[in-house]
Amino acid sequence: MVSPRAVIAEDEPLLREQLQRRLREAWPELDIAAVAEDGAEALRAIRQHQPDVAFLDIQMPELTGLEVAREAKGLCHVVFITAYDQYAVDAFEQAAVDYLLKPLAANRLAETVVRLKARLAGPPGDLSELVARIEARLAPATAPHLRWVTVSVGANLKMIAVEDICYFQSDEKYTRVVTVDSESLIRKPIKELIDELDPRLFWQVHRSTLVNVNAIASVARELSGTAEIRLKARGERLPVSRAFVHLFKQM
C-alpha cells in the first residue's frame, strides 16, 4: 500500500518542528515529502511532490496559505493553520474544512488525522468560495507590522531591525531593546509594542517581556507552574509567567 504523502508550510521554526513531530506521532505512516518556510516554496513543493494533503499556515511570506490553496485547487486536501481569527474558524467549520489553531494541541491534531484518513478516498473539495470569503475578511484588517526600532546612541540614532532583537523588557519608564550584542532603551511601552509587532515573531511571555521566538534555544518548565527561557546567543534566562506557559505546553 502506498503511504499517504504530505507537505507542511509554516514559517515559524518552532511550530514547524512541532507539527512535524506531532504528525509523526499521530500518523506514523504519513510520508512528509517536503517542509516549506513560505507560500511560494509550498506551492512548488505541492506541484513537485503531488501530496495527498497540505498543511498550510494562513499567514506566510511570499504567498499566504489561502493563496497557495487557491493556486493548488484540486491537487490535494488542505488543512489550514491559524492563530485566533474567529471569523476564519467559523468559516472553516461551515465549509467542513479542517483547521488547526496555534498553539497546536495533540488531541486536536489527532482528530484532524482521523478525518483526513476518511477523506483521502475522495477528491479534494473546492475551496474557492471559502478562500475568497476569508481573504475579503482579513484584507482590511491587515496592517504592516513594526520592522525597525530607532534607538539613541550618544548623539546619533541607530535603526535596529526587529528580527535582530532577542527580546523587549520593561525597565521602569523605558523598555530595554536587547540584541545578541547590544542593549538600548526606548520610551515605547510594552503594551504598544504588543500591538505593533508581528505576533508570529514576538510572543509575550511575561507582563514585562516580549521574546523573539527565533531567539529561543529551550524552555524549562518549573514545578511552580511557571517556566524559564534559555536564549540561543545570550546568557540570561527569561521567566515565563503562569499566564503564558500555555504557549509552550505542546512543544
Structural summary, described in words:
With 251 residues, the chain is α/β, with parallel strands linked by helices. It has two domains: 5-140, Response regulator (Rossmann fold), CATH 3.40.50; 148-248, LytTr DNA-binding domain (OB fold (Dihydrolipoamide Acetyltransferase, E2P), Beta Barrel). Helix content is 29%, strand content 31%. It has helices at residues 13-26, 39-49, 65-71, 86-94, 106-119, 128-138, 190-196, and strands at 5-9, 31-36, 53-57, 77-82, 99-101, 148-153, 156-161, 165-171, 174-179, 183-186, 202-206, 209-212, 216-221, 227-231, 237-240. The protein has a five-stranded parallel β-sheet, with helices on both faces. Strands 10-9-8-12-11 form a five-stranded antiparallel β-sheet, with no helix packed on it. A three-stranded antiparallel β-sheet has the order 13-14-15, with no helix packed on it. Strand 14 (227-231) and strand 15 (237-240) form a beta hairpin. Helix 4 (86-94) runs antiparallel to helix 6.
